[in-house]
Amino acid sequence: MELWNTSFRSGFILMGILNDSGSPELLCAIIAVLYMLALTSNGLLLLVITMDVRLHAPMYLLLGQLSLTDLLFTSVVTPKTLVDFLHQENTISFGGCALQMFLALTLGSTEDLLLAFMAYDRYVAICHPLNYMVLMRPRVCWLMVVTIWILASLSSLGHTLYTMHFPFCMSREIRHLLCEIPPLLKLACADTSRYELMVYVTGVTFLLIPVSVIVASYILILFTVLHMSSNEGRQKALVTCSSHLTVVGMFYGTATFMYVLPSSFHSPKQDNIVSVFYTIVTPALNPLIYSLRNKEVIGALRRVLGKYMLQIPSTF
Length: 316
Hints:
Layout: H1 2-10, E1 12-14, H2 24-51, H3 58-87, E2 91-92, H4 94-127, H5 132-135, H6 138-164, E3 173-174, H7 181-185, H8 193-226, H9 231-259, H10 268-292, H11 295-311
Parallel strand pairs: 1-3
Antiparallel strand pairs: 1-2
Helix pairs in contact: 2-3, 2-10, 2-11, 3-4, 3-10, 4-6, 4-8, 4-9, 8-9, 9-10
C-alpha cells in the first residue's frame, strides 16, 4: 500500500517521443503544425456543419461528431507534450495521468463505434435510399450517438479505475507519449496477467464488432454500386466510401497494433510512433480526407466563409 501511496504523491514522468528523437526541435515544430492543422480543419468542419442547414443530415451529424472527437482527442495529448518539451518538465500527477487515460480511452472508443455507425449510415443511404430518412431519422441518430458516448465512457472508466489501482514500483518513467494501459502495466509490481487478458478481450471485442459491421456494410454497398446504372451515382458513392475507408484503415490499423497485438510485439519506440499517428496525425488528416473530395462540404465552406466576409465591412 505504501508503494501505491508513493506513486500517488509523486506521479509519473512521461518519456515521450521528443525525448528519444535525434532532432527534438524539428519534431516539436512538426507536431505543433499538425496540432494547429487539426484545430483549424476540425473546427472549420464543425462550424460549417453547424451553420449550413444543407448539411443538417445524418451523414454530416456523424461527421461532425467524428470531428469533435478528433479535436478533443488530440487536445488531450498534444498541448501537454509541447508544453512539457518547451519547459523541460515531463512530470504528470497521479490524478492527471488517470484523467488523461480516461479521456483518451473514451475518445478512442467513441471514434471506434462512430466509424461503424458511419458505415451503417452509408449502407442505408446507398442500398436503401427510399427508407433512409426513416431508418436514419434525427431522433435515431442522436440516440445512437448518445449511446456510443455512454458506452465508451463507462468502459473507459472501468479500465482507468482498475489500471490505476495497481501498486507502481518498477519506475516512475512511462516510456510513452501519454498515459495508456499497456505502458502503465509495465510499471506495476503486482501480477497483471489476468487484467492484461481482460484488456486484450475488451480490445478485440471493441474492434471486432465495429469492423464486422464495417466489412458487412461495404460488401453490401459494393454489390449495390456494381449494379447501379448511373455512372455519376456510382462515382459519388465510391468517392464517399473511399474517404470513409481511408479513415477506417488509419484508425483500426493503429488501434489493432496498440491493443490487440501481444506485448512481445511492442517496443517503446514503436508504441510512441503509433501513438503519435493516432493522437496527432490522424486527427489532422481526417477532416481533410472527408472534405477535400466532398463537393457539398466545399460548397458549404464557401457559403459560410463568403457570408462571414460580407459581414465584416458592416462592423466598421
